[in-house]
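**Entry details**
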Amino acid sequence: MGLFSRSGDLPPTRYGYRPPKGAVGLGWVCPSDECGQGGPERPSDRWPRRCPECGTEVVTFSLAEPWQHTAKRVEIDARLNGSPTYGDPYRAHAEDLLWTADEAFRAGRADQVPDIAAAMGSLLDAHRAAGGSYGFDQLFHLVRLLAAQGEWAVATDALRRWRHSVRHDNLEDNEQRTEARMLAASMIHCLEAVPTPPPADQQVVWEMLREFIPVISSVTTADIDRSWNRLQFTMAGRKDPEEALGRELDRLAAADAAQPPQGLPSETPLRMEILGRYTAKGPDSSLDASRISEVCLQPYLTVSPEELAPVVLPVGGWTVYGASRCLRDCGTQDENGLAYGAIWDAGLQFYRTTGVGTQHLSFHDHQRWIARHGSGSW
């Protein structure tokens, strides 16, 4: 089978763009609708001349910049002219405006961008009036492009117009749900990416987000929730108390990666404190769940309660509560053992002092408390 070399001529794209000599290809694809085989989205030294599956001549799927920018222009023109090869012409109009904004920044013509952003908003309004909502994903990328270029006023105007037009009367509808999430994520991006000192428009975006999050609270993602919780601290001029725990979590993860724990992990009281606070906060926590598992749970799968008790019981507080959660979540130890029971009971005793109600207890925790203290004693 013949091969293309990245240092030689690359095949054209499916829309007819011919990469010049020296262009860097990132992926190939079979243009056959019945096949669609493709190479990985990473630099590949040598590509097949023909598809290994069906024998069709492959085409270039993606390129490094600046060639991808030019190739995208050829693709958009083909779709605007009714090319049946891929995609719909309506979405191509929005992609055309996004490309034009990017080109304006590249060419030093940033003064043209406000009109382009306004045209994007008008296009979305027109599609929405016709019963669709083509273009909100391109508007999502446009807001990020504007933020990256420091065009905060234009980004804020785009978000304000988007908020006024977005539909959310039926968030069970996948399209409405997706657009609502994209709008919230765009607002969050503009709040988290601002320079110091922040632009005056930041407060406008914050007020929009504060109004919008309750409207879509039933469909927000975990990432949106974490950012929303963090912003409630930072926008009030306070530090998120979980920021310090997050840094410690990252430090412990790096230490474990360099030297995997053997036996009882180092800094166990800190690990258990992090786990305790994370568990108590539940879905509102901004800490990384996978990192929590790596640092605070997995290393303890083979650690016995007898090893854990002398380290956590004298510390008490969130540390012993976290240790009780560790034993419960790992589920690898006998809960009838004396050391296990001592940690479990001490953890529940502390958790009660935080003022939470029994609705925050698991079934097994509640039954354990009743067995020790009687019904209604919490």
About this structure: The first strand starts at residue 3 and ends at 5. The radius of gyration is 28 Å.
